[in-house]
């Protein structure tokens, strides 16, 4: 009996060894990789070391930026910044105004062969300029609005520590007045603006001879003769016109009179008609002797 069991265990061991052997052998074989495709793979790019130091070349020219005026705000211009070894443009932006301050834009300065960026910031501004204004702009329109209008030239104004141009405009002509343009005057180390204003303007020479005018009759109207008028520093002719007749009124034409070395215009006006002249008595009759 014991010998039969031994035989059975021997047969079972041989069968197990026969089945397990190939499996173990398959796991025992080393893994062989196919490297034939390794040549087709891309190598990782070679990274250039980033220059973290300051730039040694000047920044590019600033970019042009268009922006309209915005009341209560100041435009901060865009600028170049040095990042990761290259210049990068940073666009401009709006900043709210600060009373008594102006914004100084960022700038680049060369120092010892390298370029250093000075950040923009708010700086205190003087209440009056310490330098003269820029050259006056020519903003006069090509066409005149009319003989009764005067063009008021634009001027430079001082706002938030810098000169700001104020555009010109049309003003209604004022008789006997002329417009004095605004101007800047230097007083010591400061500049002061003298505002524009209307001032008296009288001619110092007599007007030209009146022009001949042809007119007929118009029932119920009278003819008001034309006259020379002093406008904008020169004589300009104003043509005559018809006026409706007023009952028991007489029209007196305007005229120029010299007063104190100046010529002054006296407007025409209506006045009461003078009473009719008394009728003279008839001459006495003489009785024949």
Task: Walk me through the structure.
With 289 residues, the chain is mostly beta strands. 9% of the residues lie in helices and 37% in strands. The protein contains one helix and 24 strands. The protein has one helix spanning 2-28, and strands spanning 73-76, 79-83, 86-90, 93-96, 101-104, 107-111, 114-118, 121-124, 149-152, 155-159, 162-166, 169-172, 177-180, 183-187, 190-194, 197-200, 221-224, 227-231, 234-238, 241-244, 249-252, 255-259, 262-266, 269-272. Strand 6 and strand 7 (114-118) form a beta hairpin.
Short synopsis of the structure:
This protein is mainly beta.
Low-confidence stretches: 23-33
- Strand fraction equals 35-45%
Q: What is the terminal separation in angstroms?
A: 221 Å
Question: What Rg do the Cα atoms give?
Answer: 51 Å
Largest sheet: 2 strands, antiparallel
Secondary-structure element order, N to C: HEEEEEEEEEEEEEEEEEEEEEEEE
Tally of separate helices: 1
The proportion of residues forming helix, as a percent range, comes to under 10%
Mean pLDDT: 83
Main-sheet strand order equals 1-4
- SSE-based structural type: mainly beta
Specify the overall morphology.
Answer: rod-shaped
Number of strands: 24
């Amino acid at each position: 009996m014991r010998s039969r069991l031994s035989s059975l265990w021997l047969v079972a061991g041989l069968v197990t060894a026969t089945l397990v052997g190939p499996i173990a052998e398959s796991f025992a074989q080393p893994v062989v990789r196919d490297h034939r495709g390794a040549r087709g793979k891309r190598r990782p790019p070679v990274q250039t070391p980033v220059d973290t130091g300051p730039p040694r070349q000047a920044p590019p020219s600033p970019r042009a930026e268009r922006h309209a005026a915005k009341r209560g705000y100041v435009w901060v211009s865009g600028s170049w910044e040095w990042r990761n070894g290259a210049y990068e443009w940073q666009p401009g932006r709006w900043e709210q105004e600060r009373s008594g301050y102006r914004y100084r834009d960022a700038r680049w300065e060369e120092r010892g062969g390298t370029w250093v960026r000075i950040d923009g910031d708010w700086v205190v501004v003087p209440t009056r300029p310490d330098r003269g204004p820029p050259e006056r702009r020519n903003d006069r329109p090509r066409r005149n609005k009319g003989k009764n209008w005067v063009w008021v030239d634009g001027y430079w104004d001082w706002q938030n520590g810098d000169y700001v141009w104020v555009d010109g405009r049309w003003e209604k002509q004022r008789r006997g007045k002329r417009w004095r343009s605004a101007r800047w005057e230097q007083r010591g180390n400061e500049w002061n603006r003298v505002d524009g204003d209307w001032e008296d303007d009288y001619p110092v020479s007599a007007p030209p001879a009146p022009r001949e005018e042809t007119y007929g009759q118009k029932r119920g109207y009278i003819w008001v003769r034309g006259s020379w008028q002093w406008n904008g520093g020169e004589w300009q002719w104003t043509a005559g016109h018809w006026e409706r007749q007023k009952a028991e009124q007489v029209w007196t034409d305007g005229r120029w009179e010299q007063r104190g070395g100046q010529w002054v215009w006296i407007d025409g006006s209506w006045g009461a008609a003078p009473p009719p002249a008394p009728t003279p008595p008839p001459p006495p009759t003489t009785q024949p002797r």
